[in-house]
């Protein structure tokens, strides 16, 4: 099994997330097939040190809806970074992958490491 490593230290969130999503699907390999996942692991070091551009630090919100009336919960980016900083990169990568049966399997191949 092959391993691809990324260092997210001081990288822009969207750019590193798109590179990770392409690697998870196998688009960087010569054996790419859209209906199969490659046999590889993707490891991201310093996932909590991604950089945000513009006013995303103040404006970006994450929504979660329970399905019940009044069940919409909103979290701001600073709240998510304070509680689970790796979730910012994980959600960005998740939303860049196609919404099909392979997405959950592809996310299992992703490891986010937080090092000081």
Write up this protein.
The protein is of the alpha/beta class. The protein has a domain at 2-52 and 86-112: Ribosomal Protein L13p, Chain: A. The chain is 37% helix and 22% strand. The chain is built from 5 helices and 5 strands, in the order βαβαββαααβ. The strands form 2 sheets. A 3-stranded parallel beta sheet has the order 1-2-5. It has a two-stranded antiparallel ribbon with strand order 3-4. Helix 1 packs across helix 4. The protein is globular, with a radius of gyration of 15 Å.
Q: Main attributes?
A:
alpha/beta, 3-stranded parallel sheet, 116 residues, Ribosomal Protein L13p, Chain: A, globular, 22% strand
How do you describe this structure in short?
The protein is α/β, with parallel strands linked by helices and 116 residues long. 37% of the residues lie in helices and 22% in strands.
């Amino acid at each position: 099994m092959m391993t691809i490593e990324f260092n997210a230290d001081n990288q822009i969130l969207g750019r590193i997330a798109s590179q990770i999503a392409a690697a998870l699907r196998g688009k960087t390999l010569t054996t790419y097939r859209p209906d199969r996942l490659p046999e590889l692991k993707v490891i991201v070091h310093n996932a909590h040190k991604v950089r945000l551009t513009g006013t995303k630090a103040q404006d970006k919100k994450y929504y979660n809806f329970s399905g019940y009336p009044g069940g919409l919960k909103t979290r701001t980016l600073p709240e998510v970074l304070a509680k689970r900083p790796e979730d910012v990169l994980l959600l960005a990568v998740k939303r860049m992958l196609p919404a099909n049966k392979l997405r959950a399997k592809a996310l299992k191949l992703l490891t986010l490491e937080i090092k000081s």
